[in-house]
Amino acid sequence: MTSLRFLLLLSLFTFVAAGCPSGDDDDSAGSDDDDSADDDDDDSADDDDSAGSDDDDSADDDDSGSDDDDAADDDDSASACAGGDPLDGTLIDVNLTLVTANAPALPGACLELSLWGLDSNIADQAANLLGTFVFPIEGLPGAAQVSFPADAHEQIEPGGDDPAANRFYVTGWVDHDVDGVRNAGDYVSGQPDFWAAPPPASTDVIFSEVL
């Protein structure tokens, strides 16, 4: 009887001992699932982060719009002295001088040169404006150009029928504050330099007054 009980207990112990490894296998299987799940989640999260970094880079590229602002600033400075006639005729060099001494620096100022024509056979005739030319200027003395139109004689009224009697000259004005109004601080030319056609290679504009 005692031997029978002993055999039964031994068999039970063996059965229990044999079932333990199958439990470890379940745990290891479960750990594999957890690990693989973690790997998938982590990898996909990393991929999202890298995609996000691309978006940030593209946003940085949008900062290049600052170049447009610079271009806009350049346009403003270039248009400050706009509005004159084009130099599309016979070019004449204009020497800009002062009667007494050099003028102070005039940064950002505008020079306006006007070409005039009149018939010297007609007494007290008002001159006809043949062209206005506008340039930026930094100071005096200096140099610029005007253009003599092909139809200059036809633009002189009344008269103009005798080209030999027609006289031409250039006057000047330096608008120091670029307000479009002749006021204190501006330079204007004095007695003009008259000449007859054909136009000379150069002429003088002498600034003798400061308003």
Structure overview:
This protein is α+β, with helices and mostly antiparallel strands. Helix content is 35%, strand content 28%. It has a 7-stranded mixed β-sheet, with no helix packed on it. The longest helix is centred in the first third of the chain and has 60 residues, at 2-61. The chain is elongated and about 45 Å long.
**What structural category characterises the helix and strand content?**
alpha+beta
**Poorly predicted runs:** 20-77
Order of helices and strands: HHEEEEEEE
Q: Percent of residues in beta strands?
A: 25-35%
Instruction: Give the integer mean of the pLDDT values.
Output: 74
Oligomer: single chain
- Counting DSSP H or I runs of 4 or more residues, the number of helices is 2
Helix content: 25-40%
Radius of gyration: 47 Å
Based on Cα principal axes, name the global outline: elongated
Distance between the termini: 142 Å
What's the topology here?
Blueprint: H1 2-61, H2 66-78, E1 90-98, E2 109-119, E3 128-137, E4 142-148, E5 166-175, E6 187-189, E7 202-210
Parallel strand pairs: 1-7
Antiparallel strand pairs: 1-4, 2-3, 2-5, 5-6, 6-7
